[in-house]
Amino acid sequence: MAQATPTAERAYEHVKDLILDGTYGSGELLSEGQVAAELGISRTPVREAFLRLRSDGFLELYPKRGALVVPVSLGEGRDIMQARLLLESYALDTLAARGPEALRRVGDDLAARCGPAATPREARDAGHAYHAALVAAAGNRTVTGLFETLWHQHQRFTAAALIGRQEVAEDTAEHLALARALQHGDAAGAKDLLHRHIGSILRRAGADGDSLALPDRVA
């Protein structure tokens, strides 16, 4: 795939950010001209950005009409979060099989990622980096790739639940608690905290966080 031009990249980040912060709402129809006017650019890089956002699952394109912000139902959201739980639980199981030292190293890395975030975008980026690091630590590139694809869907679902200061603080506290459990070699506790963390995200988005099935705990 050809590398996006700087202007197309700017258009992509602009539209994606406004979807994720709720400015462009679920089911809203966008036009190339609208976005081009907002950014003071031509329609061509906006068209490139729309195509990329369609590949990421954020938009559905309708020729001569525009781009629809793809809505995500609560049922779809629950499926997305269940898949996240399975992938991240796999990572924890893999690390547990390697022993306490492997858990501690990953715990140290994750704890260092739990600093404060000044903006919702920084909070989203920090959350992605944290969970991606956990999955990558398992060393399975296929699982890591699946997680990255799934994260786009996760972002679409959680865009409906705007992140405020309280939510950011809760996320940071939950991330740190999970990291501390790994630092102490407590894989089972970390897995339980992961389940609670993903359940809390579901509840913020309006779904039943208690409906997730928890994988078997590490012995």
UniProtKB/TrEMBL annotation:
CDD domains: WHTH_GntR
Gene3D superfamilies from the UniProt entry: GntR ligand-binding domain-like, Winged helix-like DNA-binding domain superfamily/Winged helix DNA-binding domain
Keyword Manganese (UniProt): no
Residue span, HTH gntR-type domain: 5-72
SMART domains assigned: FCD (SM00895), HTH_GNTR (SM00345)
Regions annotated as coiled coil: none
Alphabetical keyword list: DNA-binding, Transcription, Transcription regulation
Superkingdom per UniProt: Bacteria
Protein name according to UniProt: GntR family transcriptional regulator
Species this chain originates from: Streptomyces albidoflavus
Organism ancestry: Bacteria, Bacillati, Actinomycetota, Actinomycetes, Kitasatosporales
